[in-house]
Structure formats: structure tokens, C-alpha cells
């Protein structure tokens, strides 16, 4: 087979093996390799992926890039939020630096000219969505659970999540962004987070064929359509009605007034999330709809994410969900009515040059 470009990629970080890089015939493979951490992304992993894409971009022997996750639990649970927690507590810049490179990678994946096959098997959350759902060949299985659960930790959907969800049919994306609900294969296809369903039992054969077969032909043999409708399709009427409201308070009121048990339970779920995150997320989603490109939305998300580092809810949310695991966050402020328009606007400010995620050169 000869020596591939992957074999010559330098180990630029001590934990470079957190991303395994390999060539199998005409396919180049990226495997996220932190299974004990559900393949959570670190800054070094983002750099490693970007470095590999640089090597493969103009390599005529690489026709397809394949992204998978090690272990049997999922592709990627998101970013390393323990590191973000420590950085936010210390008032550092490591998280902002990480997000800058991560979001630029998300945009690069979206522009990738060759087939980029993201295998979204198992859990795919947050940053895992960012490195998969912007690809041009997104594969889900019966085990897929895809989510942007940021409002539960005092954060706001990022990695282009507000771009993807704001373009989902009706108000389905707004529902997913505010609640952080995870969806299975059928609903991921419905809202535009995935393209193809391949049963997990066929994944190994499908991936093996990519070493010698064009993606289109392999998909024709292994992708199965259609799937039975998922949960979102069954609840579309009340979701579209309730989430078309202009404020989070009105959304909650409509959910409680529908008389539908699932809608009432959704209202109760929303009231457990960070009130500030909910209001900022709704504003981010509405604004994302009006922005033409993924890059513009990522630049907005970068401003919002950096602002969240100085918000008390991010540290408190991670503490409650991940550090102490008491599941009892004490949000500041604690109710929706106390989150002012001025507070929300602060997340979209441009102070400190945070808006310069993308330069004129790319």
C-alpha cells in the first residue's frame, strides 16, 4: 500500500494518541480515542484532527475521510467540561482559545470537499455534534442519541448547533436547543442532523467497503430508508405552536396550557434549566435564522461562549451536573422573570475583540 500521509503526521501533542489516524486504502480514518471519557474533545484533539485534514485535503490517494469513536458508548460526549470549569473558575483564557480552534474546525468540516463520513453511533453531544453534523455524509444507527444539552449546565448551544437547529423544520430545533433533549436516528434525520441510517450490525462491513468503494455505492448497499417516525414527528403540532412564542416565559405558558401531558412535562423540564441560558439560547436561535452562513453563526456563538465564561451559571451548572453531581444547581438569577434584556444582550457584545473568529483570509 505504501507509506501514507497519515503515517507521517507528527505527534504535536503528548496526547496525540487521543485521536488515532490511519489509512485504509482510499479512506483515511480519524478515531476519537478517549473511551473512558466518552471521547470528550480536548484542545489537542481538535488540533490533531485539523492537522490530519490539512495533510489529506490535497492528497489524491485520500478520497474519503471517516470519523468514528473508540469504545461502544458513542462517538463523542462533547468538550472536556471539567477543563472548562477549572478555566472559568480561574478566569483563564484556555476555553476561549479552545473554542476558537474548535469552531474554525467545525467550519472547515462543513466546507470539506471530499466525502466526510461521520459515524454518529451511540452518544453524540455538544462538541461531538460539531465535528460530525457539519459533515456531508452523516450516518446514524439505532443506538444514536444526539443532543445539544448546554442549557442544563448554564451554557448555550455552540459548535454551529444554533445554525443547524435554527434550520430544522418548524420549531423542532428551538425545542431541542432549549430542552437539551436527545433524539434517536429518525428524529436526527428529521431535523437535519443526519443523512443516512445504517444498522449498527452493518457498520463494520460498510466502513470496510469504504477502503475500496465510493461512498455512494457503499451507502446504496447499507443505508436503510425509511425509518418509522420518531417522537418529534408525533409532537410536531404542539411544539410548533408553543415554541413560536417570542419569549421563554410565553413558551412555558403555552406548554402548560396545551392540555398535552408531554407538553406539560416539557415545561417542567425547562424550568430546571438555567434561566439565563434559556433566554440567551432563544435569542441566539432567532438571530441565527437571520444569519446567512455558518461562519457568521459560529462568530456569534463564539461571542456568546466567551461571555458565558464570566457568567456564574456555567461554573454552577458544571459543578452540579459533573463535579459534585448533586443535580441541584443554584442559578443566578433563579427565575426567568429576573433575567433582563440587558443581561441577554451582554452575551452578544463584541468587547475584547471576541468577534474576530474568522479573518478575511478564512
TrEMBL record:
Keyword tags? Hydrolase
Keyword Hydrolase annotated: yes
Q: Where is the Enoyl-CoA hydratase/isomerase domain?
A: 28-348
Q: What Pfam families does the record tag this protein with? A: ECH_2
Return the EC number.
3.1.2.4
Q: Has the keyword Zinc been applied to this entry?
A: no
- Please give the SUPFAM superfamilies that the UniProt record associates with this protein: ClpP/crotonase
Q: Which reaction does it catalyse?
A: 3-hydroxy-2-methylpropanoyl-CoA + H2O = 3-hydroxy-2-methylpropanoate + CoA + H(+)
Q: Which superkingdom, per the lineage?
A: Bacteria
User: CDD domains from the xrefs?
Assistant: crotonase-like
Query: Which NCBIfam families would you find in this protein's record?
Result: PRK05617.1
- What this protein is called in its record is 3-hydroxyisobutyryl-CoA hydrolase
Q: What is the lineage of its organism?
A: Bacteria, Bacillati, Actinomycetota, Actinomycetes, Kitasatosporales
Amino acid at each position: 500500500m505504501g507509506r501514507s500521509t497519515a503515517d507521517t503526521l507528527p505527534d504535536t501533542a503528548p496526547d496525540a494518541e487521543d485521536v488515532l489516524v490511519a489509512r485504509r486504502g482510499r479512506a483515511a480514518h480519524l478515531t476519537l480515542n478517549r473511551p473512558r471519557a466518552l471521547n470528550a474533545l480536548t484542545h489537542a484533539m481538535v488540533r490533531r484532527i485539523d492537522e490530519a485534514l490539512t495533510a489529506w485535503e490535497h492528497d489524491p490517494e485520500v478520497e474519503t475521510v471517516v470519523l468514528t469513536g473508540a469504545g461502544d458508548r458513542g462517538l463523542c460526549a462533547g468538550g472536556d467540561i471539567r477543563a472548562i470549569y477549572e478555566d472559568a473558575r480561574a478566569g483563564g483564557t484556555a476555553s476561549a482559545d479552545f473554542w476558537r480552534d474548535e469552531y474554525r474546525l467545525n467550519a472547515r468540516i462543513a466546507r470539506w470537499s471530499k466525502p466526510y463520513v461521520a459515524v454518529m453511533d451511540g452518544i453524540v453531544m455538544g462538541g461531538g455534534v460539531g465535528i460530525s453534523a457539519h459533515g456531508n455524509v452523516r450516518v446514524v444507527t439505532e443506538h444514536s442519541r444526539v443532543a445539544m444539552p448546554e442549557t442544563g449546565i448554564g451554557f448555550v448551544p455552540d459548535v454551529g448547533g444554533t445554525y443547524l437547529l435554527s434550520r430544522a423544520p418548524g420549531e423542532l430545533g428551538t425545542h431541542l436547543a432549549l430542552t437539551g433533549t436527545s433524539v434517536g436516528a429518525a428524529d436526527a434525520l428529521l431535523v437535519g442532523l443526519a443523512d443516512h441510517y445504517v444498522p449498527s450490525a452493518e457498520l463494520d462491513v460498510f466502513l470496510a467497503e469504504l477502503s475500496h468503494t465510493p461512498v455512494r455505492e457503499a451507502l446504496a448497499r447499507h443505508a436503510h430508508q425509511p425509518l418509522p417516525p420518531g417522537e418529534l414527528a408525533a409532537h410536531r403540532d404542539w411544539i410548533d405552536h408553543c415554541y413560536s412564542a417570542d419569549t421563554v416565559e410565553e413558551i412555558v405558558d403555552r406548554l402548560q396550557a396545551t392540555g398535552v401531558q408531554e407538553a406539560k412535562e416539557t415545561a417542567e423540564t425547562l424550568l430546571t434549566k438555567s434561566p439565563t441560558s434559556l433566554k440567551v439560547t432563544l435569542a441566539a436561535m432567532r438571530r441565527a435564522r437571520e444569519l446567512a452562513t455558518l461562519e457568521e453563526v459560529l462568530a456569534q456563538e463564539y461571542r456568546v461562549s466567551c461571555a458565558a465564561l464570566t457568567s456564574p451559571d456555567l461554573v454552577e451548572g458544571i459543578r452540579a451536573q459533573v463535579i459534585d453531581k448533586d443535580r441541584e444547581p443554584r442559578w443566578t438569577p433563579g427565575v426567568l422573570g429576573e433575567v433582563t434584556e440587558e443581561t441577554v444582550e451582554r452575551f452578544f457584545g463584541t468587547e475584547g475583540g471576541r468577534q474576530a473568529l474568522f479573518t478575511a483570509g478564512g
